[in-house]
Amino acid sequence: MTTARDLAKASLEAVKARNKEAWVALYEEDGMVQDPVGVSRFDATGKGHQGRNAIAAFWDVFMANQESFDYTIHHTAIGGDEVAAYATLHIALKGGVKFDVPVLNVYKMSPNGKLASLRSFWEGG
């Protein structure tokens, strides 16, 4: 049986593998990504990216300058159909700049076993 924790890990692994199709396919047709939550350079309205087409477009912007992506999960806590994952993202940009971003990601699983939403809390977006 798939859990929200399984989907969270699959999401991060798809990003690490730079597999856009696999990442987008994890979401429901009407899924939502808020990364980060609130107004940011990735989301001028702060309302998130709703639907697979918008999620795919977010991927293109988010990944445009990245050379590589990795992560360390420090802790997860599951509750019902959601999981909160405290992690550090290890990002390398084209041109050699590398940095770490501490995040608290909240993944919600739909009744169909797909991601209904990702809400990513981090500063500096």
Structure characterization notes:
There is one protein chain. The chain is 25% helix and 44% strand. It is of the alpha+beta class and 125 residues long. Strands 2-1-6-5-4-3 form a 6-stranded mixed sheet. The longest helix has 13 residues, at 4-16. The N and C termini lie far apart (34 Å). The mean pLDDT is 96.
| Number of helices, where a helix is a run of at least 4 consecutive DSSP H or I residues | 3
CATH fold call: Nuclear Transport Factor 2, Chain: A
CATH hierarchy class name:
Alpha Beta
Fraction of helical residues:
10-25%
The total count of strands amounts to 6
Number of domains: 1
List low-pLDDT spans: none
Give the strand order of the largest sheet, numbering strands 1, 2, ... along the chain: 2-1-6-5-4-3
Helix-strand layout with pairing:
Elements: H1 4-16, H2 20-25, E1 27-34, E2 49-50, H3 52-63, E3 66-79, E4 82-93, E5 98-109, E6 115-121
Parallel strand pairs: 1-6
Antiparallel strand pairs: 1-2, 3-4, 4-5, 5-6
